[in-house]
Amino acid sequence: MTLTVLTVNDAVHNSLGESLCSELKRAGYDARTSVQAVEVTGARPPAEIYAVLAKAMREQDNTLSLCSISDIPLDISPDVRVLLVPQRMRREDSFLSPGTYTRMPSGSTVACAGALRRAQMLHARRDLNVHIVSSTSSSLLSSVSDGEFDSCILPAHELVFLGQPQKGILRPYPLPVSHFVPAMGQGAYALLSSGAKLPKRVILRLHHAGTVEEVTMEREILKRLGNTAEAVVGVTCQSFGSGFNVNIQALTEDGRLERKLKSAVAGLRDVERLVGMFNEHRSALFTRRA
User: Fold this and answer.
1) 144-161 pLDDT tens trace
2) Considering its fold, how many domains does the chain have in total?
3) Residue 273 is part of which domain span?
4) C-alpha span between 23 and 119 (Å, rounded)
5) What span, in angstroms and rounded, lies between the C-alpha atoms of 17 and 26?
6) pLDDT mean over 204-226
7) Same domain, 268 and 222
């Protein structure tokens, strides 16, 4: 039997798929594994990426889908289940440029792949020209190396698979999570199934309970926020000891900060209270223990 792992057709996901297949073999899965790239065209909104992967998985036997948790809808299809979640990689974004974002000359051009990143950078530096580019991360990096843009924003964990930019003066500068709160699930991936199975011993070896707790918190917070007046929301949870450090940030698309919250909570039972605190304090920068 051959098990096929479906991924989005770009350098990052292809590398992740190959890495996962190697991990499956090391974990004792003795079936042959291979990666099949699925084309997702256009702007690649998260719902489309998930839908294309899920459709391809349903149409083929013995297939699994490797999908970024950021791309999985809050209401997942009933016939698709999460088989395992590997350990989360870096969650923050990186600013690829000759210098930090605070030192970029006024009018410099910045390329990014989403409305959240654009709003965050405009909030930090309204004098920069920030462009949303519908492209893969490798193409974004090339556009800076080729001189089309002065800098770009990429998920930090993807740089491991993309390598260093060819343009020697470019450097990756981590963006602080406190001011650039990542999208829900950033840096975390899930292996999805609509029927294919893996041995329990393999799942237990590769599944990371701590990552599941973090992304479950993030998804629940986003669900509870529901329909807000804000266009873009970043939320990330990081486990520590007996609880979680939570960062939530909501901005309008033009970079106006609407709400921001940093808090420590014990677990899911505190989500409703946390969301209530967030909704009560518009345009407030504060740290409070829930």
Assistant:
1) 888 899 999 999 998 888
2) 3
3) 215-289
4) 37
5) 14
6) 91
7) yes
